[in-house]
Amino acid sequence: MDKLTNSDLSTLVALRHDLHATPEVSGAEAGTSRRIARALTDLGADRVVTGLGGHGVAGVFAGAAPGPTVLLRCELDALPIEEVGTPPWRSTVPGQAHLCGHDGHMVTMLAVGHMLARARPAAGRIVLMFQPAEEDGSGAIAVCADPAFADLRPDWAFAQHNEPDIPRGVAHVPDGLASAPSVGLRIALTGIEAHACAPEDGVSPAGAMADLMTALPALTKGAFPSDDYRLVTLTHARLGTPAFGIAPGRAEVLVTCRTTSDDSLAALVDDVRNMVAARCGSVGFHITEHDHFLAGVNDPDAARILRDAASAAGLDANPGLPLRASEDFGRFGHDCPSAMLLLGAGPGPALHNPDYDFDDDLIVPGAALLLGAARAITG
């Protein structure tokens, strides 16, 4: 019953290649959203909801009897990175590319839709959620806050993400922490510009900037995923204007803070703020937060269901380790039991590498495990 035909796979792979060639980054997934909504309509979904949290799309497949709602979630957005790989379906959009596999995740979810179109759940509803803006951490929060999502609010939620660091045929379903929380901090430093011949007439932020570039990463400690783990990564720095006649009066330092719990992340951010205040001296500063990802924490019952579904799909399912990277699926777990699975993609370029490309052979096992988890609840 729950099988994909050769025709299904041919259609899905062709769509995956088209999506890969026409990526759209976080918050700009309008074209991708339209294609997904059209595909769900063509599959005969009982309801297609668009505009969720921006460009989010949900396809609802309802059973004949009342029962729980199970949400299966994937992502719409690509990355602002230039692709250097050379597949025939290489990105046609300069500076943007599907280098995390979200094109494959979308098609895997549509594969679930193909099987649901032939056999609805026995009871309740299965909601296929195509979420926008995962890469900057804003999408899940926006979807959950959207009034239109209230009618779709799930009793259970599941997701999967391909992972090149895990061997093919293996699935990791972590117990507890599944993905690390993180937040980006933009530290703007303000002094006073001066003529390059008389820098003493101004206030340069160069010293404070150089100090922070060394001191902030030194807040790192512990080994992931221990409770005391904290990582501060310097991601960008800029000083003054690119001119020879001006002593700088402005600077900017960007860091990403990462821990293993939302509480410890908040404490680390406080430490960064206190350090900046203590080290800036006569230089003014302003700190803003960006790309805030909550911790993804697998519910034990949801993890067991997902692990059983992965085993039934022929995968070696085990707890493994959580993602040190962040993933905003964790927001769905604040309202219902949820779990995320990491599907082994085997050796190859890492996620976010400029030559990464999703492996089409992951579509079948990915769809089987997601649908298996949903059917374990809805029948």
Separation, N- and C-terminal Cα atoms: 13 Å
Computed Rg: 23 Å
Count every helix, treating DSSP H or I runs of 4 or more residues as helices.
8
Strand content: 25-35%
Structural class: alpha/beta
Helix content: 25-40%
* CATH architecture identity of the largest domain: 3-Layer(aba) Sandwich
> How many strands appear in the DSSP assignment?
16
Mean pLDDT value: 97
Shape: elongated
Q: What do we call the CATH topology of the largest domain?
A: Aminopeptidase
Order of helices and strands: HHEEEHEHEEEEEHEEEHEEHEEH
The tally of structural domains comes to 2
Name the poorly predicted regions: none
Task: Please outline the major beta sheet.
Answer: 8 strands, mixed
CATH level 1 class label of the largest domain: Alpha Beta
Structure in words:
The chain has 379 residues and is an alpha/beta fold. The chain has 2 domains: 6-179 and 295-378, Zn peptidases (Aminopeptidase), CATH 3.40.630; 182-293, Alpha-Beta Plaits (2-Layer Sandwich). It is 29% helix and 27% strand. It has helices at 6-21, 30-43, 102-118, 139-145, 206-215, 262-279, 300-312, 363-378; strands at residues 47-52, 56-62, 65-75, 123-131, 156-163, 170-172, 176-179, 182-190, 194-195, 231-239, 246-247, 250-258, 284-293, 296-298, 316-318, 338-344. The strands form 4 sheets. An 8-stranded mixed beta sheet has the order 1-2-4-3-5-16-6-15, sandwiched between helices. A hairpin with a 3-residue loop joins β1 (47-52) and β2 (56-62). α1 (6-21) packs antiparallel against α3 (102-118) and α3 crosses α8. It is elongated. The two termini are 13 Å apart. The model has no long low-confidence stretch (mean pLDDT 97). It is an enzyme of class 3 (hydrolase). Mn(2+) binds at residues 100, 102, 135, 161, 352. Pfam families: M20_dimer, Peptidase_M20. GO terms for molecular function: hydrolase activity; metal ion binding.
